[in-house]
Structure formats: structure tokens, C-alpha cells
Predict the 3D structure of the following.
Amino acid sequence: MENVLMQTVTSLTDNVISFEGVTKTFGEQDAVHDLSFVFPKGKIIGLIGPSGSGKTTTVRLMTGIYHPTEGKIHVMGSDPRSFTLEEREKIGYMTQNFVLYPDLSVKENLAFAGAIYGFGFGHRAKRIKNLLEFVELSDDSKKLARNLSGGMQRRLALAAALIHDPDLIFLDEPTAGIDPILRRKFWDHFIDLRDQGKSLVITTQYVNEASYCDLVGVMAEGKLLFLKKPEDLMKTAFGGDVLMLNTEDSLSDTLNNELQQLPFVQGELTFLQDGSLRLIVDEAATALPQVMEWFKNKELALQSAEQYFPPYDDVFVKLIEDYRSNIETPAENGGLA
């Protein structure tokens, strides 16, 4: 499986992170196992997966907080275990847990973080003002960090991770506990950072946020199952593009079989409870007009016919269910075990 992941992105020559056979073991348990991948520079990489799938461990390996038990890691061309001070200053890291100073105010925390990176007072003050506006904490700048709500602490931690304008940004659950409107504002900013040439690795518990990413890594049980573009994950989950059809008349078994035998149709037809028909095709753009022509030739009325984009929650569940089903299947019967 890892070779497939490498082939997915090896055509992208300008890489910021690479893992080669990386395993991290705690005691006798592998937190992540045999990870091999490359992340391209200047992209948003999303990591999604169930709790305990290894997302945070993977990020900590990238930052050098954890060292691999086996395998090789390169981040910006260097082993994270031997980052120089200059290399570390190019990295921003927002952890999953709040790690700033509880007895300092919001503004004092940001000022301290800026001072660590050598920002002069004038530059630091302007940067802090802009970041406070971005995370919507301007009116709370004098509050002690310990008196902030959990969501406000997440926003402060994000601002601190960005204070020094890093080139490579690791964000572990940056939108957890954030209201939907602010979550969208954060993602708009992440996209702006990407467009400025920054590289971002973002873990998220909100699976539908995968649509904002350039590549999405799906993790389960310490393994990276897929590393693909969001739209390609849909095809992987459902076996192709999805068309949804609503007909005025039900189809006979003969017509069902004939429709299913069309060369661009993938797999069996699915009739849903609301009476609609789900059709998996190789490419929606070319298949949809051909399906409509087929119905016309059969003198069958179509109420509607369109490409359907399943929610990423459904895509994620399908991918994980298929993975777990495969590992429970004996290898000789086509499983992954």
C-alpha cells in the first residue's frame, strides 16, 4: 500500500516532507506503522482519521518532538532530529492541547512568542494587532489566558503559531471547538497562506474540511490508507463518479440490466428509499449526457439527472469501513491481511 502512496505524489518534484518506512513504537504498541509518503511544497495537506489513528503522532514526528523508532524523515531537506535554530524558526506549530502561559494576557502571550523569534517592538505590535483581529480576540486582548474559554484558547494558540510568519505550518485540530462561521474564516486564511507559498499540514476532526485541502491523507490504526486529492477520494470510496437520477416511471428488470451494461457504468445500480436511482460511472462529465440520451431513446421520462457529490463524512466512513472489511478478509480471498 505504501508504494501506491509514493506513486501518487512522486511526480511532484518540490517536496517539503518525506517519510520512508517510518514506525513509531511506544512500549510494544506501534502508534504509526511503516509510513512512506511525500508532501509537496506550497500545498495544504489534510490528515483525517478516527481518534487514535496516529494523526498527532505523525505531526509530532514531522516537528522533531518524537523520533522514529524505524525509518527516515526529512522536513525541508533536513532530519527533524537535527534542525538548526534557523530551520526551526521557519516552522509554526499549533498543538492539540493549550501550551501557552495561563498567567499572561492574550496580548502578552503573543508579544512573548514574537520576542522569542526576534521581532522588534514595532514589527511585533503590528503583527499582534493583525493576528488578534484575525482570530477575533481584539476585545479580549487583556484577559488572562487561563480565563479564556476552550475555543478562545484555540484561537490564541493559532495566532501564536503564526506570529513569526513561518514557511511550514503544522496545525493540530485548529478548528476544534470553533463556531462554523469562524471555522470558514480560518480556512479562508489558510488558503491565503497557501497562495503565498506556505506549506500547511492540518489535522481535523471535521471531515468535510477535507474539501479545502489540496491533498488528504486518510489514517486508521497507525497507517496511511490514502493520500489523494479530495475529489479522487470520492472516486476511491464509491468506485467512480456518482450520478443521481429521478425517473417518472420505474424501470423493468430488462431495462435495469441494459442500463447497467453500458460501458461507462461501474457496478450495480442502487435504488434509494426516496425512489431515486444512484449510478456509478467512470466520468460524470461524459457519462451524464449519454445516460440522458439512453433514457430518451427508450422513451423514458427523467425528472432530474445530475452529478452527486457525497458529503465527505460519507466518503470517510465508506473508506474506513472498506479498509476494516478488507483486513478481516483472508489474503487469499483478495483482502489486505
